Structure formats: structure tokens, C-alpha cells
């Protein structure tokens, strides 16, 4: 007899209901308000073999709102991929705003670059082709950078999330926001380990460790939003 406790995406009515609700939200409140250049970039990314790495549109809409609410002007993005979240950030911040965007994969970034240029926001972006930790450490060498960023978004290698966190807490101002993507890792953080596909287990363990650490970090106020693949929103408290 089939074990009903197994996580089968096609047979779980709760998950199906959730998928239907997500589709409803996308079609009624997200896609109609998505800027045209963002929509074009999302569609261009859909054919890329690693398209699952892109920021979910519903998560992106929340991020754009948070950027506006926090009046962010100086931001940093760790992990760019084709630039969906980068473009939405550039659209949300003022014309004289600045984004330090770090990713070792320039080829992926160049997929999004024509759409960034079309939106006329390229002047806001400083793209650095590099692993993130050396760049963050270099920024911290200059004391004038400490506590000057309004906002940070992290969607990079999950094993280094805590290393990024420690550095970003020095770079982001008190009251500033740091968002971490993929902290629910497809929902597997709540699954029994034996139900998790072996390829997902390593990152799942990193996500579990990060989620536990961030929940106990008194330096930030947090909210974990079950949107996209999990958004952990942190505000630097001190």
C-alpha cells in the first residue's frame, strides 16, 4: 500500500489548493502590475536551463513594496542571475540611487542587461563579477561603507548565508532591511529527512541551520514569509 505520508505534489489537495491560490494571486494582482521590462525579462529567463533560480514574481512584488516603504536609496544585491530582482530594485529606488550587484556569472547577468538598458536604469547599477565574500570584505575595509546601505537582498549560494549575514549587518544601517531568498527550500525544511530527495539535502541542511541561527539573532527583527520559495525579511535592530 502506498505510504500516504510521502510528499507527493500531485496528490496533496492542500498543495493543489495552494497552487491554485498562487495562480489566482499572480493573475489578479501581480502580472497586471508588473512593469513591462520586468515581464519581458521574466519571459526571456524562462527558457534558460537554470530558470528556477529567478526571483518569484510574487516575492518580487513584496520586495519592491519594501524598497519603497523603506525609502531605500543605497542597496546591495548578493546573487544576480539574469537580474529580475536587480531590475525591480533599480525601478523602485530613486534616480540617484545605487545598487552594488555581485555575481560570478556575468553571462547570466548579460541576459538581463538589454532589459535593464531598455528601462534606462543601468546608471544605478554597479555590477561586480566576483564571488560575494571578497567584495563584502573589501567594502568593509573602508569604514565609510559601514552602516550606509539601506537595503540588501541575498539570493546566492545557501551554504554561505550566515557568512553574508555577518558582513551585511555591518554594512546595512540600523533600521535597514536584509532579505534572504529560498529559506524554505521548496518546503523541504518541514519534511522528514528521508522524504527529501538526496540532491536537495545539502542545501536543506544549510537552510535549517541558517533559519535556526537567524531566529535566535537578537541583532535583527525578522519575518519569514511563505512567498516564492521563502523570504526571510530582517530589519537591523542595533
TrEMBL record:
<dbReference type="InterPro" id="IPR002935">
    <property type="entry name" value="SAM_O-MeTrfase"/>
</dbReference>
<dbReference type="GO" id="GO:0032259">
    <property type="term" value="P:methylation"/>
</dbReference>
<comment type="similarity">
    <text>Belongs to the class I-like SAM-binding methyltransferase superfamily. Cation-dependent O-methyltransferase family.</text>
</comment>
<keyword id="KW-0489">Methyltransferase</keyword>
<dbReference type="InterPro" id="IPR050362">
    <property type="entry name" value="Cation-dep_OMT"/>
</dbReference>
<dbReference type="GO" id="GO:0008171">
    <property type="term" value="F:O-methyltransferase activity"/>
</dbReference>
<dbReference type="Pfam" id="PF01596">
    <property type="entry name" value="Methyltransf_3"/>
</dbReference>
<dbReference type="InterPro" id="IPR029063">
    <property type="entry name" value="SAM-dependent_MTases_sf"/>
</dbReference>
<protein>
    <recommendedName>
        <fullName>Caffeoyl-CoA O-methyltransferase</fullName>
    </recommendedName>
</protein>
<dbReference type="GO" id="GO:0008757">
    <property type="term" value="F:S-adenosylmethionine-dependent methyltransferase activity"/>
</dbReference>
<keyword id="KW-0808">Transferase</keyword>
<keyword id="KW-0949">S-adenosyl-L-methionine</keyword>
<comment type="function">
    <text>Methylates caffeoyl-CoA to feruloyl-CoA and 5-hydroxyferuloyl-CoA to sinapoyl-CoA. Plays a role in the synthesis of feruloylated polysaccharides. Involved in the reinforcement of the plant cell wall. Also involved in the responding to wounding or pathogen challenge by the increased formation of cell wall-bound ferulic acid polymers.</text>
</comment>
Amino acid at each position: 500500500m502506498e505510504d500516504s505520508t510521502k510528499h507527493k505534489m500531485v496528490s496533496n489537495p492542500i498543495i493543489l489548493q495552494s497552487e491554485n491560490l498562487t495562480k489566482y494571486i499572480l493573475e489578479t494582482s501581480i502580472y497586471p502590475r508588473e512593469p513591462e521590462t520586468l515581464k519581458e525579462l521574466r519571459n526571456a529567463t524562462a527558457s534558460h536551463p537554470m530558470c528556477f533560480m529567478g526571483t518569484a514574481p510574487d516575492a518580487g512584488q513584496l520586495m519592491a513594496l519594501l524598497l519603497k516603504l523603506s525609502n531605500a536609496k543605497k542597496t546591495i544585491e548578493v546573487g544576480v542571475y539574469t537580474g529580475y530582482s536587480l531590475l525591480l530594485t533599480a525601478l523602485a529606488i530613486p534616480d540617484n540611487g545605487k545598487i552594488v550587484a555581485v555575481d560570478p556569472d556575468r553571462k547570466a547577468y548579460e541576459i538581463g542587461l538589454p532589459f535593464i538598458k531598455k528601462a534606462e536604469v543601468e546608471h544605478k547599477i554597479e555590477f561586480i563579477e566576483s564571488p560575494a565574500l571578497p567584495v563584502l570584505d573589501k567594502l568593509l575595509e573602508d569604514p565609510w561603507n559601514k552602516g550606509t546601505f539601506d537595503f540588501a537582498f541575498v539570493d546566492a549560494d545557501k551554504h554561505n548565508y550566515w557568512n553574508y549575514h555577518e558582513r551585511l549587518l555591518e554594512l546595512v544601517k540600523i533600521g535597514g532591511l536584509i532579505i534572504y531568498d529560498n529559506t524554505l527550500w521548496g518546503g523541504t525544511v518541514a519534511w522528514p529527512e528521508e522524504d527529501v530527495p538526496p540532491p536537495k539535502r545539502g542545501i536543506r541542511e544549510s537552510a535549517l541551520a541558517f533559519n535556526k541561527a537567524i531566529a535566535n539573532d537578537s541583532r535583527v527583527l525578522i519575518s519569514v514569509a511563505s512567498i516564492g520559495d521563502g523570504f526571510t525579511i530582517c530589519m537591523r535592530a542595533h
